[in-house]
Amino acid sequence: MKDISPRGIYFCQLSILSSSKYSSYLGFKALESEIDRVFSELKSERLLEEHTAKLKKTVDVLREILARCIAKRPLGEVQPSVGDFFAIHRVRSACIECAQDPDSQAATVLQFVEDEFMALRGRCFERCRNILLEMLDKAEKERKEKGKGKKKDKKTQEPHPQVDRLELATSYFECTLCDVQTLRFPNILAHNCARRADVGSGDDWVSDALSTRDHPNDDIREGLWNCRAAICPLPKMHMSSLLAVLDLWELDPQSTTFDEVEKLGGVVECLTCNSFSKGRCLMDWTGIVSVLFLLFVKFG
């Protein structure tokens, strides 16, 4: 005799079936519509699990293809996650097609991913760039709304479209899910919190298909970049302090890039961090950003 499946056990344990009221044929006949509903739900769950299992095998092939492509790239180069590639309509459609067609070969259907890796990688990065730029636009708008009526230097009024906003000295971001200090583009794209989907969201079949379960306690789901909204711009007080430092150096925050500030080699003295035993605390731009993060974010 075959073992009863978990769904069979679930059905047998329904409290409504154990009631003496429905122990007769007529009683069960009255339950026909309810039994049909339960079996329909169980069938839907089974089909979803089967589809997810097939899709997972296809995604594993996609992961292997991407691993081969990434192995050919320079060491340390930031790469999108499997979830970002899967989000591309063409890739997603190909994976679903393989999962639905038992005769299709995933490696053959997904060969275009390897052939067009750099173009697809560029599309992934473009999406992430747009997310970060929208964050900066929103933060800048809020800062201007708050600062209405205050006198500002004329040179900071007009933006400089020829400068990549993500390369500006002030274009830092923080992660709300961990203790990492500050993040910049493009390294922010590799931040682990931004690449993971919610763990335990079993209702999301895409999330399940993208998960890796090498160990029962190791359930990692690679979702769309920043799908948990972990990344956000720096707090207003933090940003205001950075702008004040640039003002001390007579630099325009709308056009000064991170590389330019680093090349300038400017330093400031932090009176809060000065110590009788260690002496004066002098910091460059990177040190200023880190200390301000500790003062405003970590310690409030």
Structure description:
The strands form three sheets. The chain has a two-stranded antiparallel ribbon. A two-stranded antiparallel ribbon has the order 2-3. Helix 3 crosses helix 5. It has 300 residues and is mainly α. It has a domain of 67 residues. It has 13 helices and six strands. About 6% of the residues have low confidence.
Largest sheet: 2 strands, antiparallel
Q: What is the general shape?
A: elongated
**Could you give the count of β-strands?**
6
Helix percent band = 40-55%
* Rounded radius of gyration (Å): 27 Å
Strand content: 5-15%
Q: What is the mean predicted local confidence, pLDDT?
A: 77
Q: What oligomeric assembly is this protein in?
A: single chain
Secondary-structure class = mainly alpha
Q: How many DSSP helices? A: 13
Strand order, largest beta sheet: 1-4
Low-confidence stretches: 153-157, 199-203, 213-220
**Span of the ends, CA to CA:** 65 Å
Order of helical and strand elements: HHHHHHHHEHHEEEHHEEH
